[in-house]
Design goal:
Elements lengths: L1 E2 L20 E11 L1 H7 L10 E2 L4 E7 L8 E4 L2 E3 L19 E2 L11 E5 L4 E2 L6 H4 L5 H11 L5 E5 L3 H12 L3 E6 L4 H9 L4 E4 L7 E6 L6 H6 L2 E9 L20 E4 L5 H13 L6 E5 L3 H9 L6 E5 L5
Parallel strand pairs: 10-11, 10-13, 11-12, 13-14, 14-15, 16-17
Antiparallel strand pairs: 1-3, 2-4, 2-8, 2-17, 4-5, 5-9, 6-7
Length: 323
């Protein structure tokens, strides 16, 4: 499925198979998660994609060609697709900030396809157990959620703003760590609130409600007005983490909301270490993902459902089965 220009519908196309470069593998795509980042790219809110472009950066598949990994190996291909390994960021354990970094489904073709090519160094060997469709959301929703949770610190009272693909994974990790989770959704979204409580949230309600003070908050929804909203509930010394790659303008707010050593920070991309740590957790105790599967040809439908906030958990393209 090809994006020719921002704001246009994806189209089905037969593309030539690219020749493999040194260190690359060719992967038969079995499933690919549908992420809000894909929607930002498709709708033109992220402005520097390669075009034409194959979207998709939560790829699950099997190696079919290439010397870097054995044929048949089940791998995941996440957002971070390549870094130079030489810059000050890469050399200091911050490869997610590499200025020359390349990103799957944005500056590299991704997984809304029957095959994909990836640098084997950035592929993640996946644990056995979870099915292809079920494990796909962990490759971005899970990884960004995990990185955001670590950035939020160790506070007991954690607020999650927006309860979609990432939050429904993070709440499970946080609950295992003994945290108390408070889930904030749009007013009237009873289904999302019920879903949050089902997965372990102590409280779920509408943005604007004040259940109690928070030690940290993670904002998954791309709405800048949530930053001062979350600050208003934050205890002194707490952190608000903005987890998305795109956000609407942040509303102005009085300095008093920030004072008291409160912190606002973003999370950018991910590192291979994040993948190692998250999938170590998955091997120790599986994380249950809730998914809605779409065929590859239904990618536009999946993106539209995501745009409308009409997906329970995560949307995934089931490529090999088309279901």
């Amino acid at each position: 499925m090809v994006l020719d220009a921002p704001g246009t519908a994806l189209r089905a196309a037969d593309l030539p198979r690219p020749a493999l470069r040194s260190g690359q593998v060719r992967i038969r795509v079995d499933a690919c998660g549908v992420c809000r980042t894909d929607l930002h790219i498709r709708d033109g809110e992220l402005t520097e994609p390669k075009l034409p472009l194959v979207l998709g950066h939560q790829i699950v598949g099997r190696v079919v060609e290439g010397e870097a990994l054995p044929a048949g190996t089940r791998v995941g291909v996440p957002w971070l697709g390549w870094t130079d390994g030489e810059c000050r960021y890469c050399r200091s354990g911050r490869e997610n900030l590499c200025d020359r970094g390349l990103f799957t489904g944005y500056t590299l073709d991704g997984g809304y396809a029957e095959e994909a090519v990836a640098d084997a160094r950035f592929c993640i060997e996946l644990p056995s157990g979870p099915g292809d469709v079920e494990i796909a959301p962990l490759l971005c929703a899970g990884l960004i959620g995990y990185r955001s949770l670590r950035a939020a610190g160790d506070g007991e009272r954690l607020g999650l703003y927006g309860f979609g693909a990432s939050a429904h994974i993070v709440v499970q990790i946080a609950e295992r760590e003994g945290r108390r989770v408070f889930a904030f959704t749009r007013a009237g979204d009873d289904a999302a609130q019920s879903f949050a409580r089902e997965l372990g949230a102590e409280w779920a309600g509408a943005v604007g409600e004040r259940p109690e003070e928070l030690d940290a908050a993670i904002i998954f929804a791309p709405a800048g007005e949530l930053v001062p909203e979350a600050l208003g509930l934050l205890a002194k010394g707490g952190t608000v983490v903005c987890a998305g790659i795109h956000m609407t303008p942040i509303s102005s707010f009085p300095y008093e909301l920030l004072w008291g050593e409160r912190v606002i920070r973003s999370v950018a991309n991910l590192t291979r270490r994040d993948g190692e740590e998250l999938f170590r957790l998955v091997r120790e105790e599986p994380i249950r993902t809730t998914v809605e599967a779409f065929p590859l040809a239904g990618a536009e439908q999946a993106l539209d459902r995501l745009r409308r906030g009409d997906v329970r958990g995560a949307a995934v393209l089931s490529v090999t089965n088309g279901t």
